[in-house]
Design goal:
Layout lengths: L3 E2 L2 H21 L5 E7 L3 H16 L3 E7 L5 H13 L5 E4 L9 H7 L11 H9 L7 H12 L8 E5 L6 H10 L3 E5 L6 H5 L4 E4 L17 E4 L3 E2 L5 E2 L4 H4 L5 E2 L6 H20 L7
Parallel strand pairs: 1-11, 2-3, 2-4, 5-6, 5-7, 7-8, 8-11
Antiparallel strand pairs: 9-10
Helix pairs in contact: 1-10, 2-10, 6-7, 6-10
The chain binds 5,10-Methenyltetrahydrofolate.
């Protein structure tokens, strides 16, 4: 058996087209959704992501601004920029690229973001609402994974979903979202023993660890849906996920490629959240 490889470009293109139409309508009502991205330091990978986010905003008809701050910027200066963006009526979404340089307390910066502008869904208020199942922003990468599953017609309810990884950004909120969709959820991590035994029971396997080729054929039940959130460089400097794609492709039923699926879908969910934030705050933006 050979897996169907999900065409991420097609999926993402479809959703971005929908978002673009909704942005257009909102602009006609007098509000242009606006996103501010804050990048502290000069990590080259972060610079690429930030550029991709700004470009996606523009293509969707949104306003975007990128604040590039030198690596030695003080925590105080970042906090004062956040305060300015919180008060800026043109800005509906604020994202501080993670991770910041070590001298900056990331949690402190996140706590300073107005929760109604926290399009990453990293603020404790939004994380709390997510866990309680209340309305609010959904974290971009996990929300993107759910979107992929739904658009591909994968049933989640009653299925065994296994998440590998327990980060605050992906693993934990991913488990929460799958639970909200009525999956039976197991979370594996670096201290899990007999991981293959557990993951090979999964109907849906989401891998978010950050280690190239961690997941092989022995980890995957024949016919399972495998979602690869990893973003690594292999020995030749080529982008690759956490899943040994060539091996697992033979076993899985449905699989996501890296690059070209979860990454662009994450950015799409960021656009979605920014649009929602603009809708909620209503009339405060640029008048056209
Ligand atoms: N506050 C914050 N929010 C984030 O959402 C956030 C962050 N910090 N820090 C870093 C991670 C990483 N991340 C990616 C998003 C898109 C791609 C993406 O589009 N990847 C392309 C490839 C891009 C390339 O060529 O390098 C793909 O998978 O096809 C990758 C990585 C968001 N993150």
């Amino acid at each position: 058996m050979t897996a169907e490889v999900i065409n991420g470009k097609e999926l993402v293109g479809e959703i971005r087209e929908e978002i673009k139409n909704e942005v257009h309508q909102l602009v006609q009502q007098g509000t242009q959704p606006g996103l501010a991205v804050v990048l502290v330091g000069d990590d080259p990978a972060s610079a690429v992501y930030v550029r991709n986010k700004a470009k996606a905003c523009e293509e969707a008809g949104m306003y975007s601004e990128v604040h590039r701050l030198p690596a030695e910027t003080s925590e105080e200066e970042v906090l004062s920029l956040i305060a300015k963006l919180n008060a800026d009526e043109r800005i509906h979404g604020i994202l501080v690229q993670s991770p910041p340089p070590k001298h900056i307390d990331e949690q402190k910066v996140i706590d300073a973001i107005d929760p109604s502008k926290d399009v990453d869904c990293f603020h404790p208020v939004n994380v709390g609402n997510l866990v309680l199942g209340k309305e609010g922003f959904l974290p971009c990468t996990p929300a993107g994974v759910i979107e992929i599953l739904k658009r591909k017609g994968v049933e989640i309810k009653g299925k065994h979903a296994v998440v590998i990884g327990r980060s605050h950004i992906v693993g934990k909120p991913m488990a929460m979202l799958l639970l909200r969709e009525d999956a039976t959820v197991t979370v594996c991590h670096s201290r899990t023993s007999n991981m293959a035994e557990i993951t090979s029971q999964a109907d849906i396997l989401v891998v978010a660890v950050g280690r190239a080729k961690l997941v092989g054929k022995e980890h995957v039940k024949p016919g399972a849906v495998v979602i690869d959130v990893g973003m690594n460089r292999d020995e030749n400097g080529k982008l690759c996920g956490d899943v040994d794609f060539e091996a697992v492709k033979e076993t899985a039923g449905l699989i996501t490629p890296v690059p070209g699926c979860v990454g662009p879908m994450t950015i799409t969910m960021l656009l979605q959240n920014t649009l929602e934030a603009a809708r909620k705050t209503g009339k405060s933006s640029v008048r056209v």
